[in-house]
Amino acid sequence: MNSIPLSLQNSENRVATDYTAGMLTEWKRRVDKGEFLEDWQRIVTRKNNFLRQPATSEKYQYKGPHLTDKNTPLTNSIPVTGKSKTNVEPTLWQRAEVYEAALWSLLKADTKNPVEEAQVREINRRIKDLLLFYATTPGLRFSDQNRWDGKFHDLSPGYIISLWVHQLEDVFHVCKHLFSSEEKEIFINWVFSAAAFSYHLLRQDLSKPFKNRSQGNYEPVKPIAYGPPISLHYAGENTYAGNRFYNNRRLAHLPLVAKAGAMQANQKSLGITIPATIDFRKEAEQIYKEAIAFALYPTGECVEMERNDDDKPSQGMGYSFIFFDAIAWVPYYRLLEGDDSLYFYQTSAGILGSEDPTCKTPYQLDSMGKNPKSLLKAIKYQFECMSLAKEVYGTRKTENYTSAQKELFRYDGSGQLQKPEWLSGHFLMTLQANLGFKSAAIRQGCEHPYEAQGRAKVITNKQSDTVAYAGSGAYRPSEGIFGLESCLILKYYGMEALI
């Protein structure tokens, strides 16, 4: 494990739930020096789009998912005849433009330019109004159990909404000085009601494949945990339903649960009063450890590799990095408190093939054998596949292929047989995790991800070329999990020495 700088051992260094004073100073320096221009230019564009709308515009006023005839929110398991998905979850504009306008205001808070000063004030005022709008909108009243409890599982829009609230709490810190004590309490309680929604969803769903999760007995139960088997790749391990309960969509609820725990632990430095009825911190840590035990394999493989198919033999790589990003928020929040130990958590426990064969008590979460799993090991595995150091093929077919035939299905991040130019950028999501790992292999993988394939894209200290990767699409990998964590490169690349 790494030693933690003294600056991080003092919780007063936290100026927001998600970053420290030192991080904020470095972000401002990068902007002032004109570094990472592609990230910054996108921020400016979205800030301008935000300000171009009238202050009373409904463009950003997401009111919650539409209802079915049974008064429950629509999910992607229910046909939405004549309705687009934007009727279900917050749109890109309601997410990215609000967030990046707030980020622009944060990084320009000390400007001496009169025009920029006026824009900072206007953005902060509008964002405050929007946050209170969300917190008081009936369709987003998470405490309404008839509307929210027990219906979403790993379906959209539940996990998108959870990630969106996680993002909005970050936005709150830009303009919290404008909130009265009563307004601050309204917003913070709303964030915690959303975190409670995600907390109860995870506890309910993740109890199903085990004999007695609440008592630490992770013996898988039939029939739910055992079917159906799906191969991770050509001649690879089988994964079962019990492993797939820890998929990227369900785990996308985890960042908000982890954030609620961090808020509870740091309320003094954040200047807020936090409800304490749920131990979010304990639950987040337990799920983080479970994900490593039951969704990662001793080889370093991740359960999300089952998403590979013959047309998209590297599809599982993108989903694996989304999985890593979701669970890595748990050790990240501990890192900001001066504790990096969770980054280096290892276990040999597992079920249905995810266990280390040398482990004598695989159904006990912290059990150890000779070949344990860890988040770092799993991330490195994906980068080794990208660098062609591992020979893995993303097809479930079992034919005796020749070497040339197998090469068509190479699991290397370059994705789709029908689009050979496509490159995945989801590896960028490991930049934040590497603040804890400080791994040269992860940094090298992000800097030169496709060098071994002769099609390198490079991060430098002046540009962030990787944001231009094809295949970003709606998931926008350079902007974090499902596009809900903007400017990963500007905020996290090269920051290991600072934290």
TrEMBL record:
Compositional bias (Polar residues): 70-81
Region (Disordered): 62-81
Protein name: Uncharacterized protein
